[in-house]
Specification:
The chain is 60% helix and 3% strand. It is built from 16 helices and 8 strands. Strand 5 and strand 6 form a beta hairpin. The protein starts with a helix and ends in a 17-residue tail after the last strand.
């Protein structure tokens, strides 16, 4: 069996094993399915993308279609108050975006990306069916409420059973998201041959077009689906995403004959733990001086012909190098580790170093997304109290306003990828035009600006509502005044979100790409939890001495503008923290097991010995 065949599965049903040095191959767990002589599949590149992007796009349509208008559903259909609905939305969103961490572990360690996506797709379908039933069956939602009852806060809220069934549907969606989102991008990257120039360029464009493709589809879908939910029927509005998920599952399985399947490589967390434990056991051993390291560390070659990437030995976090230091009794008669909890490879050590470097950068994304997630909560609340008419008959659904942000991303990303990057590449001599951290930093600036503009617009909206609004409390101010803040949020996503996706997929070790990709969603999850925490604190602390709190149920009596300014201040502090982390960050140096030259990418301020 060739080394290439050992890396890639012939079908999604083969079991997993961990690649080992040639002479230690007896340690690998190889099943009879792995011993087949079927040759490795050819990388189809963009020919496989219609199936992978199709599945991801429809999954996003289903879950994001709900998220965009779900605030309105909770307020108007389930009669929850603003703070409670916001917390439900934030906590669910946070849990949903932490779930990919579990899905990534299961995928990378045990079942592989294909089977994880397949199982998760059916879980998402089950969740969508459950939520559709909450809108369809009268006993699964509170009784309807008149406009007058809503204004007087006389609507009947949901029972415990109704809320439980609603949360059950959200739970199924969380399971589905946990499997699809961490695996779809790495599964797409697997379809490109990164040992070729064409494959590497394909991967670079894939990250941009991945984000742009589903964004454009969502723009079309959210305008139609959200309009149906608001103006025609919640049952039909939830039923359309459900049918789309059925189409996504069919489309995904149609591509099984063209996919390349990368094998799971065992528990990645046990490998990480081995490095720390081995280094701790040898904590009193001195590290060899410079020049005396030859042969002192256990650094076996990767399997010959493998497309895996071998990381170079670095001096950062040198205490961890002790985990790979060879002492008497660490090897058996075959030259293999006698105890892997005492002797690790240099490759394992360097992979742990990558994770340690990446986590501080990852943490900076939380506050950035705290600003961006406001477009599905308080931006919707603002829109409900503004003039949403376009012409005498058409009224913009408040949940559809997120389309402005998505449209910004959909227009900007192709321009950035096809025009701006080639122009910047000529100036900076960098393949991506600018470095990934620079791209992420620009996105953070836009997120801060979006909160400042949000506060200024809300101040004017509130003043207009309190001076000129009628009995319904709607300000005589066009809802399109919210467009500037949404456009800035869109630029924040286009720079920071796409930059994060590419950063995690390129900087994480190859066999941990699903885990790395899940960190992107963990930052969104953290943002949702931080947003919920800030909402609770602001709601509790402000509004004393007889005055309403900033986030009181009647937005015209509150001070949401102060809340936005608070988030902007947090963003400024976060930006300073990010610049500090980025200054000391070194990009991954990759030693490919090919005849190509090693690649080392540094930040512009690190071009020094």
């Amino acid at each position: 069996m060739s080394a290439e065949a050992a890396k890639y599965e012939a079908s999604p049903l083969t079991s997993s094993w961990s690649p080992q040095p040639e002479k230690c191959k007896h340690d690998a767990v190889v099943s009879s399915a792995d011993l087949s002589e079927e040759p490795p599949r050819k990388h189809r590149g963009w020919k496989s993308m219609v199936y992978i992007l199709g599945n991801e796009t429809f999954e996003r349509l289903a879950t994001y279609g709900l998220l965009a208008n779900f605030m309105v559903y909770l307020l108007n259909k389930f009669h929850l108050d603003q703070v409670y609905a916001t917390n439900v939305l934030n906590i669910w969103s946070g849990t949903t975006n932490f779930a990919p961490l579990v899905g990534a572990f299961i995928s990378d360690a045990y079942v592989g990306r294909f089977r994880t996506i397949a199982f998760a797709s059916f879980a998402s379908l089950l969740g969508l069916v459950t939520l559709t039933l909450t809108a369809w069956i009268p006993h699964l939602h509170p009784p309807s409420c008149t406009k007058e009852q809503q204004d007087n806060d006389q609507c009947i809220g949901p029972t415990s059973a109704q809320m439980g069934f609603l949360l059950l549907g959200l739970g199924f969606l969380t399971v589905g998201t946990g499997g699809i989102r961490p695996c779809s991008i790495p599964f797409g990257v697997d379809q490109f041959d990164h040992t070729t120039e064409e494959g590497r360029r394909g991967i670079n464009s894939y990250f941009n077009w991945y984000y742009a493709s589903f964004t454009v589809v969502l723009i079309i879908a959210l305008t139609l689906v959200v309009y149906i939910q608001d103006s025609i029927s919640w049952v039909i509005g939830f039923g359309i995403p459900t049918l789309c998920m059925v189409g996504a599952i069919i489309l995904f399985f149609l591509g099984t004959r063209v996919y390349v399947y990368v094998k799971p490589e065992g528990s990645i967390f046990s490998g990480i733990a081995q490095v720390f434990i081995a280094a701790y056991k040898k904590r009193r051993v001195k590290i060899p001086a410079d020049g005396g390291e030859e042969g002192a560390y256990y650094d076996p070659p990767l399997m010959k012909g493998s497309v895996a990437i071998k990381l170079p030995h670095t001096k950062q976090f040198r205490c961890l190098n002790k985990g790979a230091l060879i002492l008497e009794g660490d090897k058996d008669g075959n030259g293999c580790p006698s105890n892997r909890w005492r002797l690790c490879t240099i490759q394992q050590v360097e992979e742990v170093k990558r994770i340690i470097q990446i986590i501080p950068i990852c943490a900076s994304g939380i506050i950035t997304f705290t600003a961006i997630v406001q477009q599905s909560t308080f931006t919707v609340s603002q829109a409900l109290k503004m003039d949403r008419h376009l012409g005498p008959r058409f009224e913009i659904p408040p949940g559809s306003l997120v389309v402005i942000s998505l449209l910004t991303v959909g227009i900007w990303v192709p321009f950035y990828d096809r025009i701006l990057v080639p122009a910047l590449r000529k100036i900076t001599r960098h393949e991506g035009g600018i470095t990934l951290l620079q791209r992420m930093g620009i996105g953070m600036v836009f997120s801060v600006l979006s909160m400042v503009v949000s506060g200024l617009v809300e101040r004017e909206r509130r003043a207009s509502a309190n001076l000129q609004a009628g009995s319904d409390g709607i300000a005589p101010m066009s809802v399109l005044w919210l467009a500037p803040q949404l456009i800035l949020m869109g630029f924040g996503e286009a720079f920071n979100a796409i930059g994060q996706i590419e950063f995690y997929n390129k900087e994480f070790p190859d066999h941990m790409r699903s885990l790395g990709n899940s960190l992107f969603f963990c930052t969104i999850a953290g943002a949702s939890y931080v947003s919920s925490l800030v909402v609770v604190v602001v709601h509790s602390v402000t509004g004393k001495h007889g005055r309403p709190d900033w986030l009181t149920k009647n937005i015209n009596h509150g001070r949401v503008d102060y809340y936005y300014y608070l988030l902007a201040g947090m963003g400024v502090v976060n930006l300073i923290y990010f610049l500090f982390c980025a200054r000391s960050y070194r990009y991954k140096g990759a030693l490919s097991i090919t005849k190509e030259e090693p690649h080392l990418d540094l930040e512009l301020n690190q071009l020094k010995p």
